Amino acid sequence: MNALKQILKWTLICLLAFTSFNFFISGKIETSIEIEVPASVVYGQVTDLPTWPTWAAWWEKDTTMTTEFSSIKNGLGAKMSWLGAEGRGSLEIVEATFAQSIKNELLFEGMPPSYGVWTFEKTEKGTKVTWGFQDELPFFVHFMQLFVTPDLEAGLQALKVKCESMPIVPQEITPEDVEPLIIYDLAE
Questions:
Q1: CA dist 118 to 94, 121, 129, 131, 153, Å?
Q2: How far, in Å, CA of 5 to CA of 154, rounded?
Q3: What Rg do the C-alpha atoms of the chain give, in angstroms?
Q4: Residue 170 CA, distance from chain mean position
Q5: Structural domain spans, the chain
Q6: Cα–Cα distance measured from residue 59 to residue 23, given in angstroms and rounded to the nearest whole number
């Protein structure tokens, strides 16, 4: 009987500790970074799925990962699939608004889909890039953000290094750059 009381006591303590821990952690997974290039440059890297292995943390963590890309490799409808030590998965860009936002569907074998969300906001120095997930985690798995957020942060840091090391061509157009256009009215 004494052993049963001890088991029950420790089970209750663990349950309360787990519940309390989750209560104080937000279920939102999201992180941001400022990248000192125009939003169009960062957006171009994120929507070009073959560039992901050069900056997303998961390829560095799992060197056995093999990745395949659909015939559409960037922009809306682009899709990649992978097989690695942790299993099989895929990511598809399901919504895209140029240089403003991206939504992608992330599928892992045997799990319901989750949706990654990217936003790009112009700042004084460049672009604030936010990467996260659309929905908050259910209460009982809030602790998962402790495992996912560091990977998002590492990916954003690598994306920053990649984008800021790219040569940027100024996009500003002046009146001198535009040649006059002559329009003929053929109806007369």
A1: 12, 10, 7, 5, 13
A2: 45
A3: 23
A4: 27
A5: 27-168
A6: 32
- Whether the pLDDT of residue 22 is over 50: the answer is no
Residues 186 and 115: their CA atoms lie apart, in Å, by 53
CATH of range 27-168; options 3.40.190.10, 3.30.530.20, 2.60.120.10, 3.50.4.10: 3.30.530.20
The gap between the terminal CA atoms of the chain, to the nearest Å, is 106
Q: pLDDT tens digits for 163-183?
A: 999 987 665 555 665 666 666
CA angle 150, 66, 143 (to 5 degrees): 25
In 107-169, which residue ranges form alpha helices assigned H by DSSP? 145-164
Q: Please, what sign has the CA dihedral across residues 144, 53, 44, 103?
A: negative
pTM of the model: 0.74
CA angle 159, 165, 171 (to 5 degrees): 100
Please report, rounded to a whole number, the percentage of residues in the chain having pLDDT higher than 90.
Answer: 55
* Helix or strand holding residue 56 (H, E): none
Tokens found for residue 36? 């000192």
106-140 confidence digits (pLDDT tens): 998 888 888 899 999 999 999 999 998 887 555 55
